[in-house]
Amino acid sequence: MTEPASNQPPEWQQQPQPGVPPQYYYPHPAPTPTNGMAIASLVLGILWLYWLGSVLAVIFGHVALRQTAERGDGGRGLAIAGLVLGYVGLGVLVAVLVIVTVAVGFSA
């Protein structure tokens, strides 16, 4: 008792039924540009350049934060990272100056 052969393809090869809506694909929105001051702040915070980079990293970081808020640019996280590195570099500068001042005061 075999079943009669049908002329229909297997179920997985059949076309979708008319009641199924088609799938639409929407394009992704264009990415926002990364703020150049934020990148500069991060790079200068990493390099520090004898603490001149730390000062510039703090300045550029604050400018970049303002610009990202006003313009909607990307790079807010880069600006914050540059600020953190810049302030850490300035903290190290202050600590070195205090240590040198105390060392010179004791040796005199």
TrEMBL record:
Residues 37-95 form the DUF4190 domain. Pfam families: DUF4190. Keywords: Membrane, Transmembrane, Transmembrane helix. The keyword Transport does not apply. The keyword Membrane applies. The chain crosses the membrane at residues 37-65, 77-106. Residues 8-27 have a biased composition (Low complexity). This is DUF4190 domain-containing protein. Residues 1-27 are annotated as: Disordered.
